[in-house]
Amino acid sequence: MSITPRTTTRRTQRAVLAFLLAIAPLSACRSDPGDTSADNQDADSTIVESVTSAPTGNAGADSDTNDADSPDEVIFPGADWELSSPETEGFDAEALEHALDAALIPTANTQGVVVVRHGKIVTERYADGAASDSWAASWSVAKSFASALVGIAVDEGNISSVDTPMTTWFPDWEARGLGDITLRHVLQMSTGLQWNEDYNPSNGPSDIIALVTSHADQLAYAAALPKEAEPGTVFNYSSGVSLLLGEVIAQSTGMSADDYAREKLFDPMQFSKADWWQDAAGHTLTYCCVDTTSRDFARFGWLYLNDGNWDGTQLVPASWVEESLTGAPTSPDQYGYQWWLEDYPGVPDDMFMARGFDGQYIFAIPSLDLVVVRNGTYVKDPGPAVADPNLFAVYPPNGFIPGKGTIAPSDGWDTAGFIAGVVAAIHD
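RE: above sequence
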């Protein structure tokens, strides 16, 4: 554990914004936006209306004071996290236990939950057979890691700006009429490239299923996508587009996204272990598939909650964190640079999250100094982290192969209710 003085940056600004929104007259009429993106099956295909009553407390409405009450110094974990208690960190222990009990019922298929406040693990719970050192899957949580790497590469001068045309890395796009697509469009999912992110094969042809099951060189498939709309006009959630970021990073830095992540993120933050999957051609799958522990996913959330600073070292530029958590013109209340920004009832409006298929989540709420990780059941393939070429054969979703891969929560799982329950347990 180490301690770094707290600075007044995005954290305070967003806390003030959260307070102003909380007291606005219309806030009482805010409805649950749910999962409004039709193409967002990989974020969470099982979100439904709440079937369990999640308690609501004063944490959201009082978010202006919570940040001020948080410590003046930021605590960062070393090789191990410091452990605390719910009461010490401002929680009602019984209410927090209730929220985690609901998350750990067998049908939820939750492998692990980690709650971090003020830089300490307040509580963590694991399903039978799992522990703090168990492998956990990311699915599309990996997209947020890829975004961080792009920001680092921009800061280091390896990439000139997010407005650089993608033809810099894919020169053949010029002849295909794709010269007006920029890196910013890729980050914001507004390239205009055709893509269908439907994970249900019974619904007809799907780009995501074709990508992961039929192509040894997944990058080649993604780079050949046709144009169907003008760049910057439509939000279309696309794992294929996120895969392009791996090639941008590789060409710009001379390192694979996996190696770059180890040097710039995993090692400096002292991840206990990490695998980032590749396709059979050796391309890092920047749209998915970072395997690590739930505790280490919490490290990444804590990094972003602290504006990219880790124990006094600016791993990710603070300006990049701010940009990343600003809604894109095509999805102003929903998506930034590979980060989700949606509001949930009973949760402060400054929450942002990384999320992936089968219920993988990193929630970060700056105004509450809070990071919560939820990972679903995962059995890691014992072989190399390489699609061969069928990714689903070695990294199957939704219990597709018994005893391997991830399992989705049941239809009764309520993501919004879960995080709202954790927030409601805060009583500073």
